[in-house]
């Protein structure tokens, strides 16, 4: 029974207690716990467990990455050693793999926000990438056909990435986004870790037949689409958007200074990043590794990513996401310098792949966690897509430029120049993002 003042108005103490009870019931229904912090009574909410939707999306990414990495792990070796592509030609193909269809990320993000059907758009992307695996069977040894199939596969990735990441942000309270993305990326990297091993097993069982790898990859990709359809839930806005999302709304995101600075920083960091295939080819040539060991280099990187993604994501929530992300790019500088440093043998391989895993664990999901709180919910997918598109286009330019530098100056000079480029990008990013609106996103409450 509540204590009432004269006139029927509840006593303030009773009102407060009733409100606290209501809050606890509400928070328990959405999986949050609430605790008081400090003497001023301020509340800090934290997610007791990661959302089931995040785990479902992680399972889809795990299965899909097994499929994708089966192909990715053997593709550089096939193109460079099998088809005898030069560094510049390989740079074009490698850039195409990530950047050529980057603009479709914006299309996918915009359509997902306009229709508020993020799951459907992501599903189209996953399905398109699955079908592309069969296209590799028909491509044969034609570099042009392989490039076309890769473009189709990346079209699928371009469509699905932003809606998927937006679903993660909409399924997670802001102050635990780093942890949520860390768990998702850990599951994703588990698939990337298993993919090359599955490819090696298929090659061994099928007499070194690449066609068998492509067919198996297709079947696994289809399983990923099925998991998405059955277990991932679309996250609708709590309140319907006041008006339909228009292209003008999407462009207006870039008028917001924090978002604009984050997009520019993502482009600079993408421009300074060399493709994985280049790193593994340089390591394989430096140590004169047998071609059969080549796919295992990606396994080493993904093992580090797998083990560190969730802990580093949690660390980013605590100490600051910008700080952790810049630390990850510092690890990338060390990777580039180690490729032609004094260290050699297995210590070089283990240290290089370990640092490469740290780089991915500290940058991939952390960048999206950094972006999430800065973007309005109704344009969340579009904003993420703009950031990813800028970085992917920069990566396309980076791959071509590095291939040209390798061919013109040699791998040693090209790699050291890349290390210098990362240092410049880190410095510029620290200046661009060292603002309260961005740097203080380690503990954002909704």
TrEMBL record:
Recorded topology in the membrane: Multi-pass membrane protein
Ranges annotated as spanning the membrane: 54-81, 189-206, 212-232, 262-283, 289-310, 322-340, 346-371, 392-409, 415-434
Superkingdom field: Bacteria
Tagged with keyword ATP-binding: no
Keywords assigned: Membrane, Transmembrane, Transmembrane helix
Annotated GO MF terms: transmembrane transporter activity
Cross-referenced InterPro entries: MFS (IPR011701), MFS_dom (IPR020846), MFS_trans_sf (IPR036259)
A GO cellular component annotation in the UniProt record: plasma membrane
Localization of this protein: Cell membrane
Domain (Major facilitator superfamily (MFS) profile) ranges: 51-442
Protein name, entry field: MFS transporter
């Amino acid at each position: 029974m509540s204590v009432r003042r004269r006139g029927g108005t509840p006593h303030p103490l009773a009102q407060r207690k009733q409100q606290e009870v209501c809050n606890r019931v509400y928070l328990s229904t959405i999986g949050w716990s609430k605790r008081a912090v400090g003497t001023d009574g301020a509340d800090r909410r934290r997610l007791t467990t990661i959302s089931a939707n995040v785990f479902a999306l992680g399972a889809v990414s795990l299965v899909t990455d097994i499929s994708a990495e089966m192909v990715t792990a053997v593709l550089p070796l096939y193109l460079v050693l099998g088809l005898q592509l030069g560094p510049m030609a390989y740079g074009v193909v490698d850039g195409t793999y990530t950047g050529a269809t980057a603009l479709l990320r914006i299309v996918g993000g915009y359509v997902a926000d306009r229709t508020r059907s993020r799951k459907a758009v992501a599903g189209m992307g996953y399905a398109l990438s699955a079908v592309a695996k069969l296209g590799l069977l028909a491509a044969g040894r034609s570099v042009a056909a392989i490039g076309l199939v890769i473009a189709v596969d990346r079209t699928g990735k371009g469509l699905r990435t932003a809606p998927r990441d937006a679903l993660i942000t909409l399924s997670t309270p802001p102050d635990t986004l780093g942890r949520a993305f860390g768990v998702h990326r850990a599951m994703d990297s588990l698939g990337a870790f298993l993919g090359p091993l599955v490819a090696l097993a298929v090659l061994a069982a099928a007499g070194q037949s690449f066609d068998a790898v492509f067919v198996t990859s297709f079947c696994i990709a289809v399983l990923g689409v099925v998991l998405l359809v059955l277990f991932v839930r679309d996250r609708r806005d709590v309140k319907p958007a006041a008006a339909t999302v228009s292209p003008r709304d999407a462009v207006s995101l870039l008028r917001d200074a924090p978002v604009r600075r984050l997009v520019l920083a993502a482009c600079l960091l993408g421009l300074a990043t060399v493709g994985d295939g280049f790193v593994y080819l340089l390591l394989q040539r430096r140590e004169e590794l047998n071609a059969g060991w080549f796919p295992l280099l990606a396994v080493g990187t993904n093992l580090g990513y797998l083990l560190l993604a969730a802990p580093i994501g949690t660390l980013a929530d605590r100490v600051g996401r910008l700080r952790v992300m810049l630390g990850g790019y510092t690890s990338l500088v060390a990777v580039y310098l180690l490729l032609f440093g004094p260290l050699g043998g297995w210590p070089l391989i283990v240290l290089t792949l370990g640092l490469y895993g740290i780089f991915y664990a500290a940058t991939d999901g952390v960048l999206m966690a950094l972006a999430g709180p800065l973007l309005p919910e109704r344009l969340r997918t579009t904003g993420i897509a703009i950031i990813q598109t800028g970085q992917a286009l920069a990566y396309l330019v980076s791959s071509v430029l590095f291939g040209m530098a390798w061919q013109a100056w040699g791998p040693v000079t090209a790699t050291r120049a890349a290390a210098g480029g990362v240092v410049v990008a880190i410095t510029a990013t620290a200046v661009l993002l060292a603002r309260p609106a961005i740097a203080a996103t380690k503990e954002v409450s909704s």
